Amino acid sequence: MGAFVISKRYNDEYKFVFTSRKGKIVFTSLSYELKFECEEDIEKFKAAIETADFLKFKSSGGKFYFKLIVSGNHFATSRKYTTSLRLQKGIDEIIRYGSISEILDFSGNDFIFIA
To answer: Domain range for residue 54?
Structure first.
């Protein structure tokens, strides 16, 4: 089962990613000023996953990706895939596990590496 992982961007805005069962990022959300907005959108998505649209694209470099549309609004953008089959597997994983996936909050972690 996948997971929604909330974290902070470098500009102090929040984002979340949906990770697959194997830990690979499937899609990344847009930015949010407040963490609760992020959490609310995840819950809304989980409740309305059946109505989500996946717009498929091919980049100029030949990679495949999709934009996730929820309630007529751009919600998230996927990572790049090497084949259209892998792209479809990513979409299938979202549909299969998205509504039951847990939410992990790593936005409060300040990673400090001491040399």
So the answer is: 3-105
Tell me the residue ranges of DSSP E strands in 9-83: 14-19, 25-29, 53-58, 64-70, 73-78
Decide if 111 is inside a domain: no
Q: For residues 61 and 92, what is the distance between their CA atoms, to the nearest angstrom?
A: 24
pLDDT in tens, the chain (115 residues): 889 999 988 888 999 999 988 889 999 999 999 999 999 999 999 998 999 999 999 999 999 999 999 989 999 999 999 999 999 999 999 999 999 999 999 887 655 545 5
93 within 8 A of 84, measured Cβ to Cβ: no
Structure tokens at 8: 């902070």
Name the nearest CA neighbour of 25 among 2, 46, 1: 2
From the CB of residue 34, how many other CB atoms can be counted at a distance below 10 Å? 10
Tell me the C-alpha distance between 26 and 72, whole Å: 20
